[in-house]
Amino acid sequence: MSKSDLKISRWLDAHFDRSANLNTLPRNAILSNVAGDGENRLIIVDLKLERDTRCRLKVYKGTLVAADTVLPDVPSSIISFYHDRLNPRTPVVGVGCVNDLLMFKNNKPFFKYSLPGLPVLPAEYDTWKSIDKNAGIDVRAVVERLKGISFHSLSSRSQQLLNLPPSKQEEFILSYLNNEPMRINLITCMTTLKKSSQDTYSIACPIIGTEAGIIYVLDPQNFSILLQANVCNIKNTPYIITATGLYDVDYKILVATRENQVCLLKRGWVEGKGIIQTTGTIVEILVVPGDNLIVIATTDKMLHSYTKKGQKLWSIEMTFPITCLCVVALKHLNAYLIAVGLKGGLIQLYQGRRPVDYITVPDTPSCITFGQMGQEEHVMVIITFGGAIIFKILKRTADFNLSHQDTSMPLLNYNKSLPLPKRSKLFLEQSMREREDPAAMHRNFQQDLIRLRLLTAKEIAQNLNYQTGNTNERKQIKLSAQVMGLGPKFTVILSLENMNSDTPITEMSVVFHVKREIYHLSSYIFKIPMIPPTLSYKIKTSVHELTSNEIIEPTKVVLLDAKQRVLRVFVMKKDLNIPVLAATINMPSTELAF
Amino acid sequence: MGLLQKLSLLIGSVRKKEVNVIVVGLNNSGKSTVINHFKNDDEKVSEIVPTVGFSVERFQSQNLAITAFDMSGHGRYRNLWEHYYKDCHGIIFVIDSSDRLRLVVVKEELDLMLQHPDICTRRLPLLFFANKMDCKDSLSSVKIAAALGLDKIMDKPWHISASNAVTGEGLQEGVEWLTQQIRELLMKN
After folding, report:
1. SS3 at position A352
2. Chain A interface, mutation test: which of B98, B99, B101, most A Cβ atoms within 10 Å?
3. What rounded mean pLDDT belongs to chain A?
4. What pLDDT is attached to residue B14?
5. CA distance A12 to chain B (A)
6. Which of A75, A326, A456, B73 has a beta carbon 3.0–4.6 Å from A339's, enabling a disulfide?
7. Is B151 exposed, middle or buried (0-12, 13-18, 19+ CB in 10 A)?
8. What pLDDT sits at residue A410?
9. Which residues of chain A make contact with B28, given a CB cutoff of 8 A?
10. How far is A167 from chain B (nearest CA, A)?
11. Is-contact A518 A551, C-beta < 8 A?
């Protein structure tokens, strides 16, 4: 992030209205071409849950509220879809309210579809049916029979009856007596699924998830039920639903449930299958179109990614709790980013698991949506918990430094198994032997390993000894010797040359080592002055051979010849106890004739 | 005014000069409609469609033959604008004054243009049309000038006029200013 800290933001602040006083939840704001003029409007469900307030459906044209409709009840979700092929193409906005799908066209109520009621329990049904209107109503007996049934499985009318004071109960029963007892099928979530074409203007089916765990796919033209399916084989309450694909071809419906499960419903199935179980409660679920990834945000600050089959790919822990997610589709960059709204007002943009950008807003975002708004293609609308509405426009020049390789790499590696070679005959034999005598094999191996380590240590020690200091002095000095004379007096001229091109040789000395019985030297130790680079220094020493006949007999002289007639030269450096260079000079034998 | 200058003006008015003007602005701001107004009656188009890439139009104003490069304002074509900066003598910037949301985008594009090396060093006259003045929620030309920070443009002559490209209101006044400026510029050189 350090790079983006320094540079200018990629987003333009188009509009910021702190006093909009909006109260929304994720997925409660959509961008849709409601007027049919090609300019998308923002449609927001404004939840007002206090007494004497009504929820509203607000339509923003640009930064101004163009329409404001009062809703009859608390809405659960909002969708927008094309339901006909009439020109000009105008989509309907569907709002899920209790058990009704309220549809608005051109900001006016257009159609209402009510979901069929659910049958009540037989015991409750019998209780209501046993009440005879003409005979006197035994209110207490009815209440007692209803109390015998679990409160949660009762229909809302029975629940209401049990909560009424006894004086009002009879009147209540009478008012409901003619109606068939039914349980209300509460809408919890909705989405849309294109019917036969992925085209922007193609008609789409509304999909409804209900409190009872049933999913309905409706026909967009005559609003009949095309498909009814259960979310899962066990009781699961859907609360976020997303769909991909085409109804007539193939589709997948993903349902996040309150039981922290994600269920998959495919074409041809009448019952969904749980594919993902999360530890924390699911905040939001997205399907990233490009990579076909499922991204789930949970309440424990985690952002998880799964393949469409439910295999986990990665998880990132956020610094703050996640409040909302949004897909940022950048078609001109061929990229899909995920905007993650965090508590405190930070919105991070991820490409895969790599953060690419961030936006800060003054308050915790409650709902983010991205898409075309008005004439502008890349608008991000952020609604905060404080009720503010923020419009941000992506700059034309923003490219996010996206690299497409980065995101696909971990995915590919994950899916492919490691390339293992086939088991060879050698491998099988080896493994057989290992099974027969593992203890001995281990011992042998350890022995060899220790030997190897010892050998390595020895080599290192030797190398260190050869190389004194940080540079190898041996390589810098060239030593040559010249022996002059016929004997018994010789002159040895040593020449020391500094081979190095830039560092002088200092503090050197040359030591001669001889057998004192054979040779006498004028001087045994020489201090060498500094030798500048590429220059040489010559030392002269006279050697006297003690070849008097009185000491050594001629036969012995012959014996001495090879090994004794040597002069050892050591080039020493000050403060070092090993020679930098050593050489042996073979002395010629003295011509006895002289 | 000296005799020579008068003479040159006379010659200038007799011999038509060819000047290039680039017309820029966001998509749906009314650039093609503005240009359409200046065309001869027989060349006028009844229905304006979104421009793809750019189109070249020629018209005359005060004996000055103007070649207008009507650029597409769509996001993906805006990077073409800069290729025409070099040879232009004046810039017409059309703004949709009813689109409050995109005023920041207009400012961004204007800033990008003014920072361009082919523009920033030259004393090009800038003409702004605060178009769609008839729309009920449109901003006044003064507000637009303030929002775009036009007062900070010191090194270039600029002029903003509220316009309605459909009826032609305000267009003539603006283009007259622009031709006057271009004429002065040409005389100096």
Report:
1. coil
2. B101
3. 84
4. 46
5. 6
6. A326
7. exposed
8. 47
9. 375
10. 58
11. no
